[in-house]
């Protein structure tokens, strides 16, 4: 078959298109990491929290964070929804019960402590360009500032909107978030917030045990909790788990699916770069076209010369 | 690969045009903002926050920058890979644009990333999972490829013309050689780089799209699609030629040349194909995913999407389908510009508009700084481009004419770019995106629970301690912020009347839903640790029994749940219903809600002030206060509002003066001890919590005069000098005291002030003296330290908040809070199921607790009961009395003392009639300086015990009002009453007639301290004579073998043995009319005639 110019492009185009199509399609679904049997976690029973802010204070002290303007004894700050930021790795928010007509028997607000959820399959870890964020075997997602370049992609990636950034630090800004008191837990101690919580609203333990405990609590107190352990399945599961007596969307939690976002991006990335297949195929294809069109051009040139 | 660059040459037009001047100005502004960013941080110039970590810089400088630099690889592809030579004319400008574009992407990144100096980190630290890592490495390599591709152009410009300045001229030859070699080698292998460039571009153009895929819950579904990388790649393909066209026409216009339509028109042929492909995939994706449902939402996102698609893709696509458009420079320029704007808008949409994080506390709109840095970067790029085309052979040579129409279109388009660019980045702030709603399903599986097993047992309150210090080393290891709770067990038992609320039932076996209460006795029986809750509740988070809260957790859960529920718990008897200390018949039930904040149960630990107090050498008291205030300004301000500071305050319980706020001993109350402060300041104010109140001009708004140490000393060494207006004695080591401050103790409250009122120990108050400092239980059950007393601090009853101290004295009008026995003991204080408890509880509506439980006052120390000022001024020395107390002092006159006194009983409803300075005295008898109000018919009044202090004090014989004589520095110096009266009255601002007399006055002092143990309270028989003889209780009650009525009615205080111990109570032995019912308004003993509001049952009264 005579390869003329038109045919060549048809073939080349189809090849290129198929390369792209193949490379963009998830070739195989990457398995999410299973829960490590050694992984610690925390179970926060929001029905026990009274919003005393002791956890915020303890966290602030342990991490030597900037002291807030108002003391931690000032409880009026709970009236506004706050988020963890560069000066506070954890905050407690107050949510008033939502009216459900005549059935507003429950007048008590719900207090919810927010901090890094330490996901089983953390988006921030997957996103971090330099691997500064690492999911440790004991459950903590830790941050190594020496690697960080400050791109804030982790902040974009986090489905819980947790990592915060020191925007006003000109030279050495850091991403700040709950450390799960990694260095303390490693040495058999407790995270500061867990340790100080007067009501033991935060139960510290092995993540798998905590799930059992959560189910035990729900069974032992029928009707007290909504039938949902927040963090059991959300974005592939989180090391920090929550029990609550109100639907979680009503007390400040984002409604998330069960799939961990890194599964999609990592699948795309790994399919594209497995053995550098896609770049090499593309490179050789282009090289081939270049060679082919070059040959055709020379042929044409010769023809033209002849006709001339 | 030899490019046809014989047509390209450096531009030789005038460099500095007005346009360039504007560029320079914009560059300068951008540079200034960039400088601020690098000196003060990103936060100083950008509106980026924790909700929106990426803003204009990422969307425009980086994402759009990369997309619009696509001209480089797309023209490379067509010219070299597909060997279409006719496009070589646009290759060089496109390459330059790409090279500069990517350079500025990196510059933009340097501005955006926080640790820009660490930008090389990705080279050493790899995260293969990260899309951004791939982008970064790709862009880095590609940038180098672009520079390499540009080398031939540099070589062409300088080959044979290298002329380095100054000392570098020596290197001319070498440079020449390098250029030559580079040019030669590159000429042969350039195709490697060109293909690499295309591959790298494909990779990172698509990966830029993958960037946002990880934020699956934050990106609006209109844009969020797994094929986002493909869309980015296709749009980059499509953007290449429009960008080249745009740029070529702008450059031509700018240099006054004719547009290169010869090249651009054929290039334009490919545009609709690329755009069409992009459009088709994009619409196909929308249909497949069904996201078209969001199109008509009316949200910012849906509008932006429609605008992007209609004007950014569909319109240019449609336009470019027309031959006429492709051939007309103006229209082609317009269509290209539209598409470029579409791409810009698309990138802004993907990175900013679609980005809707779950919590938006502060929305994002680019700050002026961000915008100007971006504009500055673009301006610099354009400027450098201009510089480059002046130096390097980039553009075609021959100058050509341009039409006016074209310049107008170009200007319009530029304006459009800017406007749309900024508007497009407007962030949809408050709109929350519908998120993927794959909800998790939770399977509840049963967990097995080990349950402790106990036998049934009836609990008993008798076993229980009254007060427990809830303290445990176990708790302290976890947090040690507060001092232990003094848990008033009796109080809780009284109020709750149900032990099992706290001693919760524990299942005896698995599945037992009733269980049995846990009691101390039972636990002791089981030989477990005798500390209650900690038998089961120990260390928290025990892996073996995670469901059992630790000790700290159980205390707080149990206590606080109940306290927070207090309104809802059925308190069978509210805490306080009747108490004279709480005004009104059914007193405003004090908030029946139990406190649930930390400080209402725990005192906060006082930190060690050894290092906090920064004082050295010899300091005066004022310097100490300064030091205190440097941390405790808030407390200082609070002090200024207290009656301890002002010595006056609101007087809601003083009849006729309920709404006044100025009554107090600072000005206008008077007593029959030392009389009044006016003229006597330096002496009187030695009890004031301040320094320097030596005359009426003392500044009560000056915090620096506060004496912190008098209340917070823990060394027991701080003493105020008697006549020094509050200043301490010279020999006090103030630094040591300041370094050891703590909570007030009985020493600080009593030692210097409250125990020694009236000028000496026990002089004024009948129920307080220094004996209480180390009291036994017999002196006071609450304050007793030995014999099982409860060792209360003053503030355990006198609750203190913001330095306002609950409790009040009948002798002074200011009050800062109620206090009564019922707060703890309730109005049915006698717990127990016996009949006697029932009878005793019936008393509490008519008789104050103190009446029976403080049968005698001044048990340990004689107190002054009479003071005669008229005798003063004589140089005599009468003998001391039987207690060894002086009965005469020249300065003060004659006294009488008494010890272990039977109180006087009066009705009292909590309000007081008070003599205020200037009031007329009672000319017909004794003037009452304060009188408890209430009578038998007042339901809120109850019978209270009082100490009565009588006096003879100086009065104006004409004006008939009491006089405030100047004693200190006055009478005590010159012994002249007339002069003392004149000076004193002048100081008080009152008139004095010049004639004085001595009149009789009386004061009533309430008795609430020195509570005797309950076994020693008044017995029934001591008040009720009929009960002293048979048949005792038998008048009404049938005899019961196990109850001895005679013992029962006599059970109580034993004056006989007290007398034997040396107490002066012999005259009280055998008394059966302790309370004089007739004097109180009853016709007789109520036990015989019935109560004040009720008749006796069974007609007993009529029998008499």
- Average pLDDT of chain B, to the nearest integer? 83
CATH class term of the domain at 5-424 in chain B: Mainly Alpha
Q: How many individual domains of chain A?
A: 1
Count the strands of chain B? 17
Radius of gyration of chain B: 47 Å
CATH-assigned fold name of the domain at 5-424 in chain B: Formate dehydrogenase/DMSO reductase fold
Instruction: Note poorly predicted spans of chain A.
Output: 5-29
Strand content of chain B: 5-15%
Order of helices and strands of chain A: HEHEEHEEHEEHHEHEHH
Instruction: Return Rg of chain A in Å.
Output: 27 Å
Please work out how many helical segments of chain A DSSP would assign: 9
CATH-defined topology of chain A: Alpha-Beta Plaits
Write structural notes for this entry.
The complex is a heterodimer of chains A (308) and B (1104). Chain A is α+β, with helices and mostly antiparallel strands and 308 residues long. In chain A, 35% of the residues lie in helices and 11% in strands. Chain A has 9 helices and 9 strands. In chain A, the strands form 4 sheets. In chain A, strands 8-1-9 form a 3-stranded mixed beta sheet. Chain A has a two-stranded antiparallel sheet with strand order 2-3. Chain A has a two-stranded antiparallel ribbon with strand order 4-5. In chain A, strand 4 and strand 5 form a beta hairpin. Among the domains of chain B are: 5-424, Up-down Bundle (Formate dehydrogenase/DMSO reductase fold); 461-572, Cytochrome C3, CATH 3.90.10; 1018-1103, no CATH class. In chain B, the strands form 6 sheets. In chain B, strands 9, 10, 11, 12, 14, 16 and 17 form a 7-stranded mixed beta sheet that branches. A two-stranded antiparallel ribbon of chain B has the order 1-2. Chains A and B meet through helix 1, helix 3, helix 4, strand 6 and helix 6 of A and helix 1, helix 2, helix 4, helix 7 and helix 8 of B.
